[in-house]
Amino acid sequence: MEPGVARDVALSVVAIGRDGGWLPRWALANSETNIMTGDPVTPFLVEAWSKGLLAGHEDEAYALLKKNATSTPPADSPYNGRSGVDYYRELGYVPSGLKLGTDCADKGGDNDCVHPASATLEYSAADAALALMARGLGHRADARMFAERGQTYRTLWDASIGQFRPRTADGAWVTPYDPVEAGRQFHEGGAYQYQWLVPQDPAGLVGLMGGRSATEKRLDDFFAYGKLLTDPAGTARKDWISAPYDYYGKPTYNPNNEPDLHAPYMYLWAGAPAKAATVVRAAMTLFTTGPDGMTGNDDLGTMSAWYVFSSLGLYPTMSGGDFLALSSPQFSSAVVRIGHYGTRQGGTLTVTAPGASDANRYVRSVSLNGRNVARTWLDWDQVAHGGKLAHRLSTEPSSWGTGRGAEPPSVGATRKG
């Protein structure tokens, strides 16, 4: 909507890398806090690159991102970077049991070596995003390397329990193991919340989970779907959330934090897009105008962004993927003024869904500029210059988007060369 501002923000991040030698994780004023884990700067900058917002600075940004993804800042640097990347490169995962100050530098803030399971999943997703940028810039060998690393999420999948599970440096599974608490080896969540954090390859994840029907059943359990149908607001408040900042209490959806925010849209890959509409509307009941009108910390606008995208029925599930997942809009009509940025984007997108309501939430059909859309996603280029996105809704689920091949792309699985 404001590409000029977004470009300024992205180039400011690149400037931090230029001046400090390393890209930030959570910069505050003129310092690095090292708050949070994983590698959030990579999907952020890759998304900016995919929209043309790094024009003239692509090579510099890519060099910094590659450095960040393949090496660790020295001991005298204030940056943590990917503190577990050496183990990740060697083993395909960050192992459990690492000691701060011995196996990993202790610079304060959060550290990937303390939360190795979630760090592995985040590294893998970031690498898959970076593979897209590498390919786009013509770095084919790098693209193959990062695409392969985008599949390392599989190294932590324990088929015997059907969950992601931390393992030690010798390859053994951490035992005993409770997926709810998960030994705090996932950051601000357990294995249940993190089981969906494979935005680069949802189709591959569905395969690990036993296929579309098994994944749909797992999602139903995760969202307490049967209860949602009769008491969406109560289920969201009582079954999903323990307390605003309790991230380890339940084996269910936790929309007061980021790791599983995109989970409702996994129904699209399971062939059940109608259920995504039910879950999203239930989650929206947690947003109010009161003092507790947001379920958790907005974290640089993440919760607000989830609400805005979900309200429009257009959700970006994969950074740099250049597609938007489709679902049911919250409003009968919405107008999005897409900011102009050269020839890449600019125009007015009108989203219509006559009669949209909590009851009338299921998509019967979608059209873009008068043409039927049978799949559950759109390329960014299809809406970058505006248009009219029209929905027909119903009070009952339909067959829209349920066929094989209707699901959005799994970019980490389909583009490895």
TrEMBL record:
Residues 393-417 are annotated as: Disordered. GO terms for biological process: carbohydrate metabolic process; glycoprotein catabolic process. SUPFAM superfamilies: Six-hairpin glycosidases. InterPro entries: 6-hairpin_glycosidase_sf (IPR008928), GH92_a_mannosidase_put (IPR005887), Glyco_hydro_92 (IPR012939), PNGase (IPR050883). Pfam families: Glyco_hydro_92. Residues 2-394 form the Glycosyl hydrolase family domain. GO terms for cellular component: cytosol. It comes from the Bacteria. GO terms for molecular function: peptide-N4-(N-acetyl-beta-glucosaminyl)asparagine amidase activity. PANTHER family: PEPTIDE N-GLYCANASE PNGASE -RELATED (PTHR12143), SECRETED PROTEIN (PTHR12143:SF39). This is Glycosyl hydrolase family 92 domain-containing protein. It comes from Streptomyces violaceusniger.
